[in-house]
Design goal:
The complex is a heterodimer of chains A (137) and B (120). By secondary structure, chain A is of the alpha/beta class. Chain A contains 5 helices and 5 strands, in the order E-H-E-H-H-E-H-E-H-E. Chain B has a domain at 1-10 and 36-47 and 60-110: DsrEFH-like (Hypothetical Protein Ychn, Chain: A, 3-Layer(aba) Sandwich). Chain B is 32% helix and 22% strand. The chains are: A alpha/beta (137), B alpha/beta (120).
């Protein structure tokens, strides 16, 4: 029985490419990974937004209206609903003049109980060190 | 011998990342390692049937087929990414797996090393 931690580090802009979307969908896919593993084995994901990647977390995205695709905001809410750990780098938020009020912090309206963690880079570094595998998107 | 899981999200033509991923897979298999190659996003183009071998464009299918025949190499397309691009089972070369994204995470679970090459 083993748990492997995988860190999904998102550093790319939203909507410029498919990259950050695939980070979210792959992280959420951890919810069904058990069907491929031995009993008791599992994957524990952590989603980490750094650099320009913090812009994926902006509130009130209109991707469905503008592009006809699910917004990154909705994917983040789904991740929170599924109790995934979501961390956003505070220094990078500050760099863009953003605060917790600017980003998706919870998924209460769809029943989510977990909230986004806005943390200094030191904390993100700890998550990276604790991970078995890192995937940069 | 170890197991290497590679995720590659870059396109066949337009980026050389997929060329690198296949070259690395070939080197690892020749050393006796096992390799899982997960193709997502534009990377799913690698499995498309009917590719032509022109000198100005990458053509990896010959190497990929040799790797599949080695028995130490699994190559799998992300089903949703491929279908979104109009690439179904019938459009995909024999020997390619088709799976959902959890396959990649399960492969990473059992890997000694994971090399993730994101998209463009």
């Amino acid at each position: 029985m083993a748990i492997k931690k995988i860190a999904f580090i998102v550093e790319k802009l939203p909507y410029k490419s498919e990259t950050s979307r695939l980070a979210l969908t792959h992280a959420i896919a951890s919810q069904t990974v058990e069907i491929h593993l031995e009993d008791g084995d599992n994957v524990e994901p952590v989603l980490i937004f750094v650099g320009e990647g913090v812009l994926n977390c902006l509130k009130d995205q209109k991707a469905l209206d503008v592009y006809g695709v699910t917004s990154l905001e909705m994917h983040i809410k789904n991740a929170l609903l599924l109790d995934l750990k979501v961390q956003v780098c505070k220094e990078d938020l500050d760099g863009f003049g953003l605060t917790e009020d600017s980003i998706v912090m919870d998924a209460e309206e769809i029943g989510g109980e977990v909230t986004t963690e806005v943390v200094p880079y030191d904390e993100i570094q700890k998550s990276l060190e604790a991970a078995d595998h890192l995937m940069f998107f | 011998m170890g197991k290497l899981t590679i995720g590659c999200f870059s396109s066949l033509v337009g980026s050389m990342s997929l060329d690198f991923a296949v070259k690395l897979s070939e080197a690892a298999v020749k050393k006796g390692h096992e390799v899982d190659l997960w193709l997502s996003g534009n990377g799913t183009m690698l499995g498309k049937k009917g590719q032509s071998k022109f000198r100005d464009y990458s053509y990896l299918m010959g190497t990929v087929k040799e790797l599949i025949e080695s028995g130490k190499f699994k190559i799998t397309n992300c089903e949703a990414c491929a279908k979104a691009r109009g690439i179904g089972r019938e459009d995909t070369e024999e020997g390619f797996g088709i799976a959902s994204m959890d396959w990649y995470l399960a492969s990473a679970f059992g890997a000694d090393r994971v090399l993730h090459i994101g998209g463009e």
